[in-house]
Design a protein that fits this description.
The protein is α+β, with helices and mostly antiparallel strands and 93 residues long. The protein has helices at residues 54-58, 62-68, 74-80, and strands at residues 27-30, 37-39, 44-47, 50-53.
């Protein structure tokens, strides 16, 4: 029994919480960005060998994604996503 919350399985608010849930069991891994436990049945992304929770990746901005996926610049990320850089002077399309 936990000396802090007096439960057998701590809830998230307890200082002794270690990612185990009564409903979902023990955490399979933790998000490599926010360290939130990822449990069985929960969707998450893999970035290389690193697990990333849906909230972290889906809420990331272009700068976060550039760093996370190892691109040298935002421009490199945008080009990899299919954008093409054009310069004015002619037709837009």
């Amino acid at each position: 029994m936990c000396p802090e919350c007096h439960r057998f399985i701590c809830e998230e608010g307890c200082p002794a919480y270690r990612g185990r849930s009564a409903e979902r069991g023990r955490a399979l891994c933790n998000c490599s960005l926010c360290d939130t436990p990822i449990t069985r049945g929960e969707s998450f992304y893999s970035v290389g060998a690193r697990p990333v929770c849906r909230e972290c990746l889906e809420d990331s901005d272009a700068g976060d994604l550039t760093r996370l996926f190892g691109f040298a610049s935002r421009e490199a990320l945008l080009l990899a996503l299919g954008a093409s850089l054009r310069h004015g002077g002619g037709n837009c399309l």
